[in-house]
Amino acid sequence: MTFFSSTVPPTLALRIAYLEDDPLIAHEVSDWLREAGYDVQHYTDGQEFARAVERGGADACLLDWMLPGLSGPDVLCRLRLQLGANVPPVIFLTGRNAETDVVQALESGADDYLVKPLSRPVLLARLQAVLRRSGSTLPAARLRLGEIEADCSRRQIFVQGERVELTDRETDLALHFLQNVNRLLTRDFLIQTIWGLRPEVETRTVDVHVSALRRKLRLQPESGWRLVSVYGRGYRLERARSADEGPQTVPPELDD
């Protein structure tokens, strides 16, 4: 198997802001996107969604139409007013299939329009198309970090050529860290994106999974990479630096 190899950390995963109030649809679509290598933030409230996008929290937006509070078109209108030409690519995902609805969405600034029920390959292809047109780089399907190799599309991870047996949650965590090297991933962010905002999930659950991941992937200083705990916040995968190396530039953290 051939892997992408580089001496620099892999490209950060593209961030998809997803607005959908149906939990079953949201769970399924979020899984599709994460398995394709995207970093998904799911929202059920239009105002919260708009605030996150306005803070620069998305490379692309997926919008449902009918929502409590702000509707999908209302959200897009607000983003256009606040961000102007800097609104990320927008795709509507909706059950409304009238020609007038499609025209309204596209004329208001949407980049594409998909009618439910959704098709996984069509959604991913359309998303890649709008990202390509916007100049964004698609997430790497395969990546390498020191002794660790990952096939993101197959959700398989190897250490020194040997496949590592991971649970689904551990695999989700590993891919998030490998695609966000040097970026702090807060516990709240990990609970929201991996455990789906389940209220019974405690921060201790994240700590236990991270500890298992650190052991299974040998993320210790002697391997050249380490998964460090940031007290009171979360975790960051970073290069293990020697004492004579200079300071390290740290990208913004990913929070909820």
Labels describing this entry:
single chain, 256 residues, Rossmann fold, 2 domains, five-stranded parallel sheet, four-stranded antiparallel sheet, 8 helices, 12 strands, Sensory transduction protein regX3, OmpR/PhoB-type_DNA-bd, Sig_transdc_resp-reg_receiver
Summarize the structure.
InterPro entries: CheY-like_superfamily, OmpR/PhoB-type_DNA-bd, Sig_transdc_resp-reg_C-effctor, Sig_transdc_resp-reg_receiver, WalR-like, WH-like_DNA-bd_sf. With 256 residues, the chain is an alpha/beta fold. It has helices at residues 23-35, 46-54, 72-83, 99-107, 120-134, 168-178, 187-194, 203-216, and strands spanning 15-19, 39-43, 60-63, 90-94, 112-115, 142-145, 148-151, 156-159, 162-163, 185-186, 225-230, 234-239.
Walk me through the topology.
Elements (H helix, E strand, L loop, with lengths): L14 E5 L3 H13 L3 E5 L2 H9 L5 E4 L8 H12 L6 E5 L4 H9 L4 E4 L4 H15 L7 E4 L2 E4 L4 E4 L2 E2 L4 H11 L6 E2 H8 L8 H14 L8 E6 L3 E6 L17
Parallel strand pairs: 1-2, 1-3, 3-4, 4-5
Antiparallel strand pairs: 6-7, 7-8, 8-9, 10-12, 11-12
If you had to describe this structure to a student in words, what would you say it looks like?
- This protein starts with 14 loop residues before the first strand and ends in a 17-residue tail after the last strand.
- α2 packs parallel to α3 and α6 packs across α8 (203-216).
- The chain has eight helices and twelve strands.
- The protein is 36% helix and 20% strand.
- The strands form three sheets. A five-stranded parallel sheet has the order 2-1-3-4-5, sandwiched between helices. A four-stranded antiparallel sheet has the order 6-7-8-9, covered by helices on one side.
- With 256 residues, the protein is an alpha/beta fold.
- The longest helix has 15 residues, at 120-134.
- α3 (72-83) links the parallel β3 (60-63) and β4.
- The protein has two domains: 15-134, Response regulator (Rossmann fold); 142-239, Orthogonal Bundle (Arc Repressor Mutant, subunit A).
- Residues 1-11 and 242-250 have low confidence and may be disordered.
- Residues 15-131 form the Response regulatory domain.
- The modification 4-aspartylphosphate is found at residue 64.
